[in-house]
């Protein structure tokens, strides 16, 4: 009995190590598998889960342009916003890697036994400030790089020239930054849910071992 008692701390420590390792592997899988998709051309624009739509203030701009036969210009503006998000998300991976490295045993156990989006919530709380600081200047630069600034300057100018409309001047950089972050976390949550609920998504022995503990909670 004493021998078992002596071994118990080591067994529990190994369980903690396994849980932390399994959670880190699961989060890395989510980043590599899902977030990477967003960095491709049309990663946002043709993904209905995360496609960035126009803010409310600009929905009337879109409708106004289409009424006067400028539907293509409206489409170009929407595509340009999504292009800047695709460019910015390339900056996300190092920030997520740092957050995953900083995960404690307690964090890992709470995540494992938490709800189906507990890991995504952990990343969101531990990276949002850094992501915004990284994404915002990239998106600002991307607006220029992909030509979105000129497209939207043209759109706003044409819309504001329509008689009797209320003139607009939205902060598209801030809006797109927040929407890009929403899209990133939405895709990570997809992979987290897969690993938690689909046995076939547990692609390593460690993932199978660790998430079996969750299954039995």
Automatic annotation (TrEMBL):
It holds the Pfam family DUF4197. It comes from the Bacteria. InterPro entries: DUF4197 (IPR025245). This is DUF4197 domain-containing protein. It comes from Flavobacterium chungnamense. The lineage of its organism: Bacteria, Pseudomonadati, Bacteroidota, Flavobacteriia, Flavobacteriales.
